[in-house]
Amino acid sequence: MNSANVIEVIGKSKKGFDDAIANAVKDTCKSKDVVGIDVINLTANVKKGKIIEYKSCIKMACC
Question: Which of 1, 7, 21, 62 would suit a FRET pair with 48, their CA atoms being 20 to 30 Å apart?
Fold first, then answer.
């Protein structure tokens, strides 16, 4: 029987949601063996009508 730990992380980027997701995966893979992700939520910080930071909340399955 295979099992995995599930962790929740938040990725951030000033470029876009794709980069925010990629940053979260890249940072987590430095210390864990990520085998799958589930994007839970996408949010952004806005200042003076412009998006200044993109955020992705992700659940990751790790071995």
Answer: 21
Domain boundaries, the chain: 5-62
Q: Does the domain at residues 5-62 carry the CATH identifier 3.30.1660.10?
A: yes
CA distances in angstroms from 5 to 2, 23, 36, 57, listed in the order given: 11, 20, 11, 17
CA angle 43, 31, 25 (to 5 degrees): 30
Give the 3-state secondary structure of residue 48. Answer: coil
Report the SS3 class of residue 2: coil
Instruction: Please state whether beta strands 5-13 and 34-47 pair in parallel, antiparallel, or not at all (unpaired).
Output: unpaired
Both tokens assigned to 45: 């910080």
Query: Residues 7, 28: contact at Cβ < 8 Å?
Result: yes
